[in-house]
Amino acid sequence: MPFASAYGKLSDESLQRIPTAGADFDIHNGKLLAPILIPRVPGTPGSRAVQQHFVRFFQEQLPDWEIEWHNSSAKTPATGDELIPFANLIFRRDPPWAASGDVARLTLAAHYDTLYHPEGFIGATDSAAPCAMLMHVARSIDRALTDKWAAMQASGEAGSGLEEERGVQIMLLDGEEAWVKWSATDSLYGSRALAEAWEATPYEPLSTFSNPLGAISLFVLLDLLGARSPNVPSYFQTTHWAYQRMASLENRMRKLKLLSTQGTDSFLPESGKAMTQFARGFVEDDHVPFMARGVEILHVIPHPFPSVWHTMADTAGNLDIPTVDDWAKIVTAFTAEWMELDGLMPKIPAQHEIRESAKTEL
Ligand SMILES: [Zn+2]
User: Fold this and answer.
1) CA 20 to 30 Å from 104, out of 179, 301, 336, 350?
2) Distance CA 88, CA 92 (A)
3) What is the arithmetic mean of pLDDT over 324-341?
4) What sequence ranges are listed for the domain Peptidase M28 (predicted)?
């Protein structure tokens, strides 16, 4: 399988360069997280405000990322004959020379919608924090991707056909939640529509992949993250190797004292799980419509769920921000390793250098 092809480890020095989100994860005025901490029921003004937040962030700060809206609509058991709009947002970076049907994409996903009931539900772990984490991942690898691809073009390595073309995409999905009671038809509105649409959208003949679903090298789904002391199992035997990669990065970052939740247990403790220990059961979530079509899945969701799950207590104030920041760093490291950005991560400026540049900006 090409998706399992070997790739090099990130060096300690690259791990040290994985940036923290810092003040941007402040729950009151943090640039990434705070605007998401509002009710985001599909079709409501809150949902539209958060969509605009995502789009504006990429347009203004990450203009090299292609933005794709995927719109659908459906009736729900709570809203009668009214058609509710669902909008998935996909942000994508491919090597600039590559045809879109030839790029294998690491796909990082989270849902941004919130429950219809209870009214006023915030869903801080479900999944505002995971969305903010993915925004941080995108901005943290952006420069290194640009530099890597520019160097490949300069050396004539680009498009040689010797190596698989690698891209990355971030999916912020709508309509994950059930409106009345979880069922095959009352849940996963956005992801079901997207998987179906992509399966039916063929690439040009002679492309490496037949459609955008086939081009997903690994679908990494973050959900219910942001509460203290998460325990994330390895759910799938076929992607246990990817779980081990992420766990190894976490453990190395802990040893190097690069995480804020020092002294706590590993978030990803199941690297040593034996192949015979994998159960058939799994948590139903946005990966299901993709998995049903053969996409490989890494599901990053804790078991047990956070104690605040689907209650009015899933609020900003109940997030554990050091945990949110550590997840963002772990997933950034995983993405940087996958995209082979070792040696390309920009140096993090020291505190005094930050103060100096702030002065010159004034
Ligand atoms: Zn939920």
Assistant:
1) 301
2) 13
3) 98
4) 105-334
